[in-house]
Design brief:
By secondary structure, the chain is an alpha/beta fold. The chain has a single domain, classed as Alpha/Beta hydrolase fold, catalytic domain (Rossmann fold). Helices cover about 40% and strands about 15% of the residues. The chain is built from 13 helices and eight strands. The longest helix has 15 residues.
Length: about 290
């Protein structure tokens, strides 16, 4: 389990296990720095943070960026139940335990933000601060789907629930449709190609889609209020996430909260605005660390 481009110090964590699952981790920065866990989304991997992590290291922070469940080749269980939110948050707790960390700052983008919201709500003793990039609090998201037009932006989530069809469509012709979709949504061509190639690994796309397919199981697993200092970063040109849920998120945070709006930026905030992302995270950590 290689540390990858962001690996930094010899005593770091290049992987961890949880039961029969083996996860890859990129651990870098000063060993004594405040630890920051970086959680990627769909269909990314830990490499989403490759341009952010070195900047956080320059601020004196240590970063741990795992390839999450379904994205690490050794952690791709079949079915949708293994991808319930309680399992995804337990993976992050296992990472903290493997690194010998009682608490860490948590930064998540896209699905990584959802994991961050749940982790902060359910395990505030393990989370020093939360930075949620793009995705609002799940309860605000659910409400906006009913009252704020978010449902139209989230039609793709319903499509991803279908068995087999999304895999066939997205992976046709060597994943050309997925590559084209990612590039048209704002990712640089080389990054879109790398993410698409990874989704061609055996079982990779089905495992990544299982995060969506587990959503019907979430009714019995709601995310409550967050009681740790929280920074929410949202970009105005994100086609999947509207303003209503973003502006309603503060109601679900019972702690210092700040919303940072990035004008004109599409969904891929860590890849497209790494310097801005790193500066916001570093300031948040400094203010509440």
């Amino acid at each position: 389990m290689a540390g990858g481009p962001a690996a930094g110090h010899g005593s770091g964590v290049d992987g961890f296990r949880r039961g029969d699952l083996a996860f890859d981790v990129r651990d870098g920065g000063p060993p004594g720095g405040d630890p920051v866990v970086l959680l990627h989304g769909f269909p990314q991997d830990a490499g989403a943070w490759d341009d952010v992590a070195p900047l956080l290291h320059a601020f004196g922070l240590r970063t741990l960026a795992p390839d999450q469940r379904g994205y690490s080749p050794g952690a791709r269980p079949a079915g949708r139940a293994p991808y319930r939110l309680r399992e995804l948050t337990a993976d992050v707790l296992a990472l903290l335990d493997a690194a010998g960390l009682r608490r860490a700052h948590v930064v998540g983008h896209d699905w990584g933000a959802v994991v961050g919201w749940a982790l902060a709500a359910r395990h505030p003793d393990r989370v020093r601060t939360l930075t949620a990039v793009s995705v609002p609090h799940p309860a605000a998201m659910a409400r906006a789907c009913v009252t704020g037009g978010q449902a139209l932006r989230s039609v793709y989530v319903g499509v991803f629930q279908l068995p087999l069809l999304p895999e066939r469509l997205l992976l046709a012709r060597g994943a050309a449709p997925l590559r084209r979709l990612l590039h048209r949504s704002g990712l640089p061509e080389a990054t879109a190609d790398r993410y698409a190639r990874r989704m061609r690994e055996p079982g990779a796309l089905s495992a990544a889609l299982a995060w969506y397919r587990a959503l019907p199981l979430a009714a019995s697993d709601p995310v409550g209020p967050v009681r740790v200092p929280t920074l929410h970063v949202w970009s105005t040109a994100d086609p999947a996430l509207g303003r209503t849920a973003t502006e309603g998120t503060h109601r679900h945070v019972d702690a210092p909260y700040r919303l940072e709006v990035l004008d004109g930026l599409p969904h891929w905030v860590p890849e497209l605005a790494p310097a801005r992302t790193a500066a916001l995270v570093a300031r948040h950590v400094a203010d509440h660390g």
